[in-house]
Structure formats: C-alpha cells, structure tokens
C-alpha cells in the first residue's frame, strides 16, 4: 500500500531501529547459551584464544554449532578475534569481557538477567491474557531458575560492596550488628544478603522473608551449605513479619516495587521496627515521570520491558495489586509513602550503583 506521505529515508531508519532491537534480543539468547554451556568460562581460562575446534573439544560440544555461535559473538563485538580473515580464526575474550561474562564474584558480572532469559521471555506466552484481565504473575512463575537468575543478578555487587560501603554508611548500624542485632531481609530472594550478613556478624540474628517457594528453597539449600545458626528463611504468610520481637534493621533490596501491596508493606515495616531502628531501602533509581525516565536513563526501555515481563507483573499478581513496577518507586514517591507509613527521616545514601538507589529510612 503506497502512501506518498511516507519518507523512504525515515522508513529505512525506523526499520533499522526496530530490527536492531531484534538483533539485541537474539544476541541475548546467544549470551544465555554462552553462559549456560560454559563457553565464556572456558574461553576465560585461555587468554591466548581458542579456535572453534579447540573450544568445542574442550567442552565436548559439536564444532559446527560452536563455530556459528562464535561468529554471532564476534559480529556482536562480545568476543574478539585476532584475524577475521584467517582460515581458522582465533577468538578470545578481553580482560573486561572476562569480568562481565565469566567472573561471578566481580561487581561487573552481568550474567544474571541472561541466565533467566528463557523464563523471562516465556512470560510472553501468558502476557496477552494478563493484558486482558489485568492479573500478573508472581516470581514463582519463572520457576527455580528464575530465582537463580535473580541471585546471579544482584549478588556480585552486594558481595563486593555491602559490608565495606553500605553498612558503614548507615548511622550506628555496624556497631549494633557487631554487638548483636535482630535483622529482617524482606523479599530476600535466594538469601545472599542474609547469608553474607550472617557470616559477617555472628552475634546478630537474621530472618529472610519471601513469598516465593523457589527462592526460599534456594535460600535454604544455601543455608545448609553455609551451616549458619543465626540465619533462617520464612514465608511471611506462615510467620508474620510483625509476629516476633521488633527488628533493629530491616532491609528491602529491589523488591518493594515488585510487591502487590507496597503501602501495606511499609506500614508492616514501621510496625516491626524498633523506634531507634533503621530501614535500609534499596530500589531502582527511578525518576518521577516517563519523560525523565526516558530522557535521563539510557536503560529505560530495558527496564520498562522487564517491568512488563517480571516486576510489574509481580506487582499486579493479585487483583488489587498497586502495580508499581520496575521504575515505579522514585525517590520522592518512596519518601512520600514512607512518611505516610509513619517514618520521619528519609536520607539518600552516597552510594554509587548503576541501577539502584540506597535510602536510610528511620522512624
Ligand atoms: C527482584 S527479587 C529481589 C530478591 C533479593 N532481595 C535480591 O536482591 O536478590 C524480588 C523478590 O521479592 C519477593 N516478593 C514479592 N512480594 C513479596 C512480599 N509481599 N513479601 C516478601 N517477598 C516478596 C519476590 O518473591 C522476589 O523474590
């Protein structure tokens, strides 16, 4: 259907823009395979480079498939190559690529979202129904590997920076943790934060709360391995957060915007916190408007998409869900909600993070 008002150059550029998104999606699938099959890990151990044959041989894989994967990776500038014109090219990872792709304890390690890509994308199958009914899906809909993906996404940074930078930035908290404090990690996921704090502060008691069966299973498995007697993981629907002694510190890491009832949760946090206690609120660095998010955050389209597939879906997983979503809890909104829940002090901590903002919230 010809339309004279269509500018062919604009059309070409628009089409290119749309297909470059597909290039990103398909290459993301290839990154998932590189991680899952140990291709990056194997390449990281051989900084001088590998041929498709040696890489396939090292991992017991079929050379033809590995070669095609390498061609995708080099075209996407993820894997490097000494000489593309060679008959049998040698491929390698730069030291920076090794950090992002193959070093799970490096703060820049980025394989978490790629790990759970199949589960995240599988949500597309039930999304049309959610768009019609309004009802989303909680984190358990992503299966056990979804919980592992979350663990791989957030933990590298936490493991590196939480104890040396975040805890000391909270007024009086380090001393309390050393002496013996009661701590809750709400929305604890696979439990990495509670386990790290539990190991570091043996005189304190930690309770991780989550409503995801898969996350709790993973957390309890890791707890068995760590053998810590000061950490436990529970479902708040079985043991209410308000039920025991009040807490000195409550942490919520990247989860308030996922909750169906964040307003009620903030009231629960206030009710469960001692009057001299601290709530460490960590959530996505979101702006107050669509305009600001789109113009100031280069990852806005990724984050809004993840919101539909995961965060907002979780926040809409009950009929009366508030539906905040990934970019739904800006600093000013969090402050307003915290004040309404009974908190009087709300400070942004001077912690640099690519995605998250850190707040010290006090009664
Ligand atoms: C993005 S994950 C973050 C997990 C963990 N804090 C971390 O940083 O790795 C969000 C978690 O919040 C949990 N969650 C959602 N609503 C919850 C609620 N009402 N109470 C407790 N956990 C909840 C989800 O099950 C999920 O495990």
Automatic annotation (TrEMBL):
Domain called Methyltransferase: residue spans: 178-299
Membrane-spanning residues: none
Coiled coil ranges: none
Domain S-adenosylmethionine-dependent methyltransferase Rv2258c-like winged HTH: 28-83
Family matches, as InterPro entries: Methyltranfer_dom, SAM-binding_MTase, SAM-dependent_MTases_sf, WHD_Rv2258c
PANTHER family: METHYLTRANSFERASE DOMAIN-CONTAINING PROTEIN, METHYLTRANSFERASE TYPE 11
The protein, known as: Unannotated protein
Gene source species: freshwater metagenome
High-level lineage: unclassified sequences, metagenomes, ecological metagenomes
């Amino acid at each position: 259907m010809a339309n004279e008002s269509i500018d062919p150059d604009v059309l070409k550029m628009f089409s290119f823009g749309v297909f470059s998104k597909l290039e990103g999606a398909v290459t993301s699938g290839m990154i998932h395979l590189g991680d899952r099959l140990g291709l990056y890990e194997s390449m990281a151990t051989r900084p001088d480079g590998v041929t498709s044959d040696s890489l396939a041989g090292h991992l017991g894989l079929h050379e033809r498939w590995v070669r095609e994967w390498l061609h995708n990776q080099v075209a996407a500038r993820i894997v490097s190559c000494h000489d593309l014109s060679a008959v049998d090219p040698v491929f390698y990872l730069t030291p920076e690529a090794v950090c992002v792709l193959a070093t799970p304890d490096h703060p820049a390690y980025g394989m978490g979202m790629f790990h759970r890509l199949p589960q995240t994308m599988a949500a597309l199958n039930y999304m049309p129904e959610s768009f019609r009914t309004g009802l989303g899906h909680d984190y358990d809909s992503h299966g056990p590997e979804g919980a592992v993906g979350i663990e791989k996404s957030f933990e590298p940074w936490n493991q590196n920076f939480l104890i040396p930078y975040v805890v000391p930035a909270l007024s009086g908290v380090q001393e309390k943790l050393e002496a013996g404090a009661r701590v809750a990690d709400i929305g604890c996921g696979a439990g990495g934060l509670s386990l790290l704090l539990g190991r570091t502060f043996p005189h304190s008691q930690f309770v991780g709360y989550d409503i995801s069966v898969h996350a709790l299973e993973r957390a309890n498995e890791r707890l068995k391995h760590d053998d810590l007697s000061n950490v436990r993981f529970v479902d708040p629907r079985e043991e209410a957060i308000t039920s025991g002694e009040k807490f000195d510190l409550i942490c919520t890491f990247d989860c308030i915007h996922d909750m169906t009832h964040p307003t009620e949760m903030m009231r629960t946090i206030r009710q469960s916190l001692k009057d001299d206690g601290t709530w460490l609120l960590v959530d996505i660095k979101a702006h107050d408007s669509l305009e600001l998010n789109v113009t100031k955050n280069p990852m806005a389209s990724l984050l809004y998409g993840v919101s539909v597939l995961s965060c907002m879906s979780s926040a809409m997983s009950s009929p009366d869900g508030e539906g905040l979503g990934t970019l739904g809890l800006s600093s000013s909104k969090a402050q307003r909600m915290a004040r309404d829940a009974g908190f009087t002090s709300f400070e942004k901590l001077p912690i640099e993070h690519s995605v998250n903002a850190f707040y010290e919230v006090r009664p």
